[in-house]
Write a structure and sequence with these properties.
The complex is a heterodimer. By secondary structure, chain A is mainly α. Chain A has helices at about 1-10, 15-30, 35-70, 75-90, 95-120, 125-150, 180-200, 205-215, 215-220, 225-250, 255-260, 265-270, 275-305, 310-325; strands spanning about 165, 175. Helices cover about 75% and strands about 0% of the residues of chain A. Chain A has a two-stranded antiparallel ribbon with strand order 1-2. The two termini of chain A are about 35 Å apart. In chain B, the strands form 2 sheets. In chain B, strands 6-7-8-3-9-10 form a 6-stranded mixed beta sheet, sandwiched between helices. A 4-stranded antiparallel beta sheet of chain B has the order 2-1-4-5, with helices on one face. In chain B, α4 (about 110-115) runs parallel beside α7. Classes of the chains: A mainly alpha, B alpha/beta. The interface of A and B includes residues 203, 214 and 231 of A.
């Protein structure tokens, strides 16, 4: 029995190696005494909560990719567009109403995309569809700013701004937790739960899963693809709206939101592109990895190699994904493709 | 129990599906050339022929996956020029697939429930929220689906993901999903391919029962000549995209062209 496990580990040595490296990277700050336990936990929690937001955008990618096989580059732009719409509309009305109107806009957007882009391009090459979403992305960014301007706008969700300190008795100085991030994490958790119920427990969700599994069979039993696409893009629009609200209230609604949201891309790929749990776990891994790299790796580089050691957060996600892809090209929970040669 | 019993021929009705001079090409390759045949209500109609004869193409033509480049297909007297699989499903045409096309990650129950999609009257939004009538409707559909599961004798596997089931059972789930549409015309693409004798006998029984109990018209593609002779009322024979024979199993069996196509021509 144990020899079978050894054999398996040996067979999957790249996975083992990567997992070991990740675990070592995670443990290193504590082991080397660079961080106190309190600070270590603080960075860890900060990373997890940042990761939750990445998961949210990645979820948008995954939903659309699953149901229509389209790699939607416009997800980041959708986040920006929804946030912009909400922020500017909220200047004239209550926030809830503004968000509801923004949701209607996203649904309208889904209808237009299905009619003008997906339907004509169905059965075309994946590259054509990718280019189309790239076009949608650029258009949406520009159009959003043309309508609503390109300053920095505020969304005030009324989340508590001042951080809280927990565990002051156990750790020196306690652990600093951003209440805002915590609230965001709870919102995202609730959203994931709702989406899970929607997919697993409703007839519409069942139809969506059917289309994701097999287009042809779904059509043969009378599931209308076009309507399913509208629904999926609407759900992705809804997810983008939530991400835009949470992020917008944190960073302010501005153009760079669409770039930050693109972090969801490596997250989705890491998770396996077709897997909702993969998107969640991928977001957490990248969130934590980034924070650790920024705080601890940066410190180490500065201390031992006299480098600047800053800005690691910007690129670390992509390096992490690259390392993952070398070991598991299908991502964490992706479907393994075995092609006959 | 020969299919050409007087009692069986008695229940066969009017022409349900009429294919007239249908041709289909892919690029320059002719998949089907000038095919004419009809299917009558409540009959079991087999399509046979060597590999690459165009059997599946013909099924896909009826189902609306392909559109004929020439000729017409009329269903219940209504000619359709451009048709889509969803339209076919709406008109009461259901199908199964040669290489299984089940929703692999979903349970047997969910797979068959998807077959009820067209019969759901409440809006997609109401379904999504499961409010009021939508919840009641879900229960009604569930009853129908449980009936199908009983009929196909797959109760023990209801909650299992179909991807985990043995091949023969997956074929049954595929049939169940098609039956959930309560179709008038059922297209079966090699329902018994890859099955052992016992599984084939079960499947034959299900097909005959569906035909008998629900009055469903059945068009099936099958390689096993024994099965074809046993259960079909009439047989169409294709070779190289052309129809080379059409008639009762006995007539087809005696047809010189058919024998040549299957066994090769003696030189």
């Amino acid at each position: 029995m144990s020899s079978a496990i050894v054999a398996r580990l040996r067979q999957h040595w790249p996975v083992v190696l990567l997992a070991t490296l990740l675990a070592a990277g995670l443990a290193a700050p504590l082991a080397t005494g660079v961080a106190t336990t309190g600070f270590f936990l603080e960075v860890l929690l900060g990373g997890l909560m940042a990761g939750v937001l990445y998961s949210l955008v990645a979820l948008g990618f995954v939903l659309i990719y699953k149901a229509s096989g389209v790699f939607n580059f416009a997800q980041g732009a959708m986040v920006l567009f929804a946030a912009l719409a909400t922020a500017r509309l909220a200047e004239h009305m209550p926030l809830a109403l503004a968000a509801a109107l923004a949701l209607l806009l996203m649904i309208g957007f889904a209808v237009i995309v299905e009619r003008l882009v997906l339907r004509p391009l169905v059965n075309q090459s994946a590259v054509a569809l990718l280019m189309a979403t790239l076009g949608i992305s650029t258009f949406l960014e520009g159009f959003g700013q043309a309508v609503w301007g390109n300053d920095i706008y505020r969304i005030d969700l009324g989340l508590p701004k001042e951080p809280m300190i927990v565990g002051a008795q156990r750790f020196a100085g306690g652990i600093l937790i951003s209440r805002e991030d915590l609230a965001a994490a709870i919102v995202v958790g609730a959203l994931v739960l709702v989406l899970g119920l929607f997919f697993q427990k409703t007839a519409t969700g069942r139809a969506l899963r059917a289309v994701a599994d097999d287009h042809l069979a779904a059509q043969a039993i009378g599931i209308p693809l076009n309507r399913i696409w509208v629904i999926v893009w609407s759900v992705a629009g809804f997810v983008a709206l939530i991400a835009g609200l949470v992020w917008g209230s944190k960073l302010g609604v501005q153009f760079s939101l669409s770039q930050v949201a693109l972090k969801g891309l490596p997250v989705a790929i890491l998770g396996g592109l077709t897997s909702v749990p993969g998107a969640i776990l991928g977001g957490l891994i990248i969130g934590v990895g980034e924070k650790f790299a920024e705080v601890f790796l940066g410190q180490a580089l500065a201390r031992w190699f006299h480098l600047e050691g800053g800005g690691i957060e910007q690129w670390f996600a992509y390096v992490l994904v690259l390392a993952f892809l070398l070991v598991r090209p299908e991502g964490l929970f992706g479907e393994r493709h075995i092609d006959r040669v | 129990m020969s299919a050409s019993d007087v009692s069986r021929t008695g229940q066969i009705g009017n022409v349900l599906l009429q294919v007239e001079h249908a041709s289909l090409t892919f690029g320059g390759v002719k998949a089907l050339t000038d095919i004419c045949f009809d299917v009558r209500e409540r009959e079991i109609r087999a399509i046979i022929g060597p590999n690459g004869a165009g059997k599946s193409s013909l099924l896909n033509l009826i189902n609306g996956v392909y559109t004929p480049v020439a000729g017409t297909i009329s269903y219940r007297g209504q000619v359709r020029k451009r048709m889509h699989p969803v339209d076919a499903a709406r008109m009461g045409i259901a199908r199964t697939f040669q290489s299984l096309a089940l929703f692999k990650g979903m349970s047997v129950l969910d797979n068959i429930m998807t077959g009820r999609t067209l019969r759901m009257r409440s809006g997609l939004l109401a379904q999504a929220l499961r409010i009021g009538p939508a919840a009641r409707e879900e229960i009604e559909h569930r009853k129908v689906v449980e009936g199908i599961i009983d009929f196909l004798e797959i109760q023990p596997y209801r909650r299992q993901p179909v991807g985990m089931l043995p091949y023969g059972l997956q074929k049954r789930v595929d049939l169940g999903r098609a039956l959930a549409l309560e179709p008038q015309l059922l297209l079966l693409d090699e329902p018994m391919a890859g099955m052992n004798l016992e599984e084939k006998q079960d499947m034959c029984r299900f097909i005959l029962d569906v035909n008998d109990e629900f009055g469903t018209t059945i068009v099936l593609i099958e390689h096993d000549m024994g099965v074809v002779m046993d259960i079909s009322d009439r047989v169409v024979v294709l070779d190289y995209g052309r129809k080379i024979g059409d008639g009762t199993p006995n007539e087809v069996h005696a047809n010189r062209d058919v024998i040549n196509a299957y066994l090769g021509i003696a030189h």
